[in-house]
Every structure is written in structure tokens, then in C-alpha cells.
Design goal:
The structure is a homodimer of 313-residue chains.
Chain A (H helix, E strand, L loop, with lengths): L7 E9 L13 E6 L2 E5 L5 H7 L8 E4 L5 H4 L2 H10 L6 E5 L3 H11 L8 E5 L3 E5 L3 E7 L7 E7 L8 H6 L6 H7 L4 E2 L5 E2 L13 E4 L7 H6 L5 E5 L7 H6 L5 H10 L5 E4 L9 H8 L5 E3 L5 E5 L4
Helix pairs in contact in A: 9-10
Chain lengths: 313, 313
Amino acid sequence: MHFMFEGVELEIVFLGTAGSTPTPDRSLPSIAIRRRGELLLFDCGEGTQRQMIKAKLGFPSKFKIFITHLHGDHIFGIPGLLHTLSLLNREKPLEIYGPKGIKDYIEAIEETVGLNLNFTLKIFEVSEGLICDCGDYIINAVWVSHSIPTLAYALIEKPRPGKFYPNKAKALGIPRGPLWKKLQMGFEIKLKDGKIVKPEEVLGPSRPGLKVVYSGDTGPCEKLIKLAYKADLLIHECTFDDSQAEWAYEEGHSTPSSVAKIALKARVKRLILTHVSARYKNTNVLEEQAKKIFSNVVVAKDFMRIELKHADL
Amino acid sequence: MHFMFEGVELEIVFLGTAGSTPTPDRSLPSIAIRRRGELLLFDCGEGTQRQMIKAKLGFPSKFKIFITHLHGDHIFGIPGLLHTLSLLNREKPLEIYGPKGIKDYIEAIEETVGLNLNFTLKIFEVSEGLICDCGDYIINAVWVSHSIPTLAYALIEKPRPGKFYPNKAKALGIPRGPLWKKLQMGFEIKLKDGKIVKPEEVLGPSRPGLKVVYSGDTGPCEKLIKLAYKADLLIHECTFDDSQAEWAYEEGHSTPSSVAKIALKARVKRLILTHVSARYKNTNVLEEQAKKIFSNVVVAKDFMRIELKHADL
């Protein structure tokens, strides 16, 4: 198990950054996001389970899978992963979200060769909108522009309680300890003398959570601008370079300039390009083309890790 | 493309040597055999296509796949491999051999998410006996002892013409050149004076071809002794070490001593153990236990290459 450093709220681990076919350096598409002991997997291309093992992510009980679309390079890792989770005696249900058809695909494998699952598989066929409310964050999605129905997903943390002011708490006669903690978490408390203290009496204004958006395969797509608006991180496919733009768009894929323009319009903080065609042994050309329009951009590599912290407001 | 050295008749490349679950060092089961520009793949666990790319095997037009059984760890690499062959514009038909059910499995994926094949897939559901006669070699199979129907395969080269004696040819007045070649290949020739020369007049006795046997998952199995009799190489699963023998046999798996006994009885020249459980970070224990009974044994590693040459009889 790989441990996250203190203060890191979200860790993004790029498990597979190839597009369509794997290369010696790039496995098929999959991105893991770790958050407070939970693991969210976005896409599950062939080889994902082994990449997870190599990345020392473990297979935590809190584990959800989100599939962008039903092209083989994004889903052929699901059966093997489920098979391994069963061998590891997983008992907790596993949730898989994806476009219509994901259920038929997994059930077809179960019915023909069997997956021997010893846990419940909850498969949700979803459309754009709110995908799930997971307590202190939500997952939203929009349809993007690919050759088959394809979703882009956004992980959006709900606003956090404002900054805690100890001096205000002391002035109100609240003893340091569990009551402070409760107020910090946004709950009202009752003092010994019966007085109620509301969290806003000792907290600053509520603070925004983090936002990470993952595009799935897509040509340039206006809807993504809204989904990714002011995201801390946009992870976007970039299969081809600008010289292949016409063909890329026809195939429902993006190029560095088109992605950079979306990042700029969406005012995201940071952009990472992934789903790179096997033709690019060296990805400098992709990075350089994007940088002319949006400076805070890199091309993903397998096992690259990005840590996101809450701003200290 | 990785080239074979002159004189090498068969090259065996271990693409995946794990059992059931992958590890950082071992991909899921698959073994490639190269022979005169042809590629034969035995099992196709998840990740096989990427292992093939890493091993620089290419995807030759002469390419057949043999599946031992329908457990996920041996077949979940098929869809991705077919997907990639299509993207590479393969046109020549591809043959897949395996136990009953292999057709339903592949068709189920085709029917649910599509494989977009632009070549013909010929799927043969086979039983024990002669699997295919491929000209100068055959593939035979027997049922072995696993929890579901499982085949072991033998690649058996047909006997080659005997050694050519130039002095005998000269004595018969045959001019050096194409007629020598024809005789060497086992064909009779006609000289200018009308005299017929039969190959046995200039050749020694016919020479045996090479024989390689791959077990698939199995507990100790008497049938394998016959299939592997006098093989140049036996590749046999060895999931657990001898201390786990009782449990291994119950699960339809083998241990070093049981495999070594089969190699000894079958009088094979060489033994390679594969399909190693993830619990063995260090496989010395497996090798040592086998060596006590059969000395010419190693445990396979991913990307290990074994070259087999014809004996110079």
C-alpha cells in the first residue's frame, strides 16, 4: 500500500495513458483517484489490475469504477479486475458506473465463462447529470463528442466549512477540545450553561472543495467547458498532434491546441493530456503545441502521481 | 521485430508466467512459440498483447492461438488482442483453438461491445486428439486434471529427411545444385540420362523433429506422460510448492515434485515450470524441490526466451 502525505486531499495516479493500443511505456486507459481511503477508478483498460498492483494502490473496500464509454481499450480490464477482487475474497459490493451497455457486457462474460464473484456487483447505467452523491463530494457527467456515447466525469468536492478562529471560540467561553472539533466540522454545539453556538460564529466563510475533471475520448467539446469550469485539474484526451486535427476530429479525438483552448475557456488551474497515440514515442510536440495556448500543461506518463491540496484560505 | 538466430528452429518466449493474479514481475499466462515466421500463442491472459509488443514479436500474418481452458486468467487478453489486430488492419483469418465455450465467450463480447474485426475469426472448439495438421508439424492435445475442462497441447514436428551424403550424390553422377537440394528435401529426381534417384539413395535415416509440450493448469496427470514422452521441452504449471501439495491437488494444480516426476517418467530433455502463484516472490524453493527429482529444470520468468535447434544427427 502506498501512503499519501499529510495535507494531500486527492491523489491522482495515471495507470494507463495510451490510446487504443498499448506501448512498452503506456498501458491502456485508466486513472485512479484516491481520496480519504477511497479509490475511484476512471476507465479500466486491459492491464489495469496489474498497473494498480505495480502502483501499490491496494484494492480498498471503498472502491468505485466509472467508465467513460464502451470501446474495448477502456473496458477490457474490467473482467480481470473483478476476477482478482474475488480471489482476494472481497465481500463489500462494488459499484460500476457507465453508459448503457456496460451491464450487458459484464453479464455476457459472467454468463459465458463466469467471474465467480463472491461480492455483489452494482452496475449503474448512467447518462449526463449527477452520477452519484458520495457524502462530501459528488460525481457529475456530461456527454462528449466521440463515435459512440461517451461521458466525461467531474469529481466535485462539496464546499468545506470556513476557517476556524480559536480566539472567537475562546471569547465565547468554549473549552478547547471536542467541541472545537465539532464546530470546525460545521456542527452547532451546546455549552454547559445551555447556550447554543452556531459554527458560523467561530468560522470564516465556507471554502470551495477540489474539482477534478476527466474527459474520456472526445473531439473538442463545448460541454466540457462548463463541466470543467474552474477545475483544479482537467485531465483530457489528446490522441493526436495539431497536424492531424482534421482526421482527429473526424474520429472523435482531440489535439493539443483544441484541448488547451478548452482549458483556457474553462479557466482550469492545471491541464494534463492523456490517451496518447502510440505514434508519439516523444510527446514533446504535444506539450509544446498546447503550451502556446495554455501554459500549465503536461503530458501524462504511466505511474505519474499528482497530489492536490486544499488551498489554505 | 526480434529476429531469430540461424539454426534455431523453435523459439519459445514466455509472455506471462503468473498464476491467477498478476504481480509486478509476472503477467498473466501466455507463451509464444515462433517457428519459421509463424507465431503460435498458447493461452492469452490479460496483458498478452502488451507483452507481445514489449517482446518485439510483431503480429505476423501466420498466427494461431491455442487456449487451454476458459478460466479468466488464461483468456481475458483475447478481446484486446483482437481489437489491436483490427486496428493494425489485419486481413488474414485468425484461428483460435480451445475447449467448448470459447466461441460463446468471444461472440458475447462481439455482440455486446463489438470487436470491429476486419478479418475472419475462425474459432475451433476442440477436444483431445489431433488439433491441427500444419504441414510439417502437428498440434496434439489431451485433457488434463483441472476444475474445468482443460487441455494440454503438444507441438510435434514431423520427422525430417535424413542427413545428406554429398559423396553418395557425387558417386551417382548428380551435379551439385538444385538437384541436391531437392533430394535433401526428400524428393526423388530425374537425371539428364533419364535415371531416377530416390532420396534414400543419398540420405541417412529420417530424423525426428522437435517436440514441445505445454500443460495448461493441471494437477498431476498421467495422460501428460504420454503426450510429453521424449519431448525436447515440457512447460508445466507449478502453482504451489510441495508443502501445499494437498491443497494444490484439490484445486487442480501441481507442485515441483509432482511435475518433476512426470518429466522423469516422460523422459523429457528439459522442464520449465510456469504459472507460479503470486505468493512466491523468490522461486528458488520451487526449483530446488523439482531439482531433487529432475535436474534440467528452471522456473520461467516473463520475457525468458528458449531456443531449440535440431540435433545434428
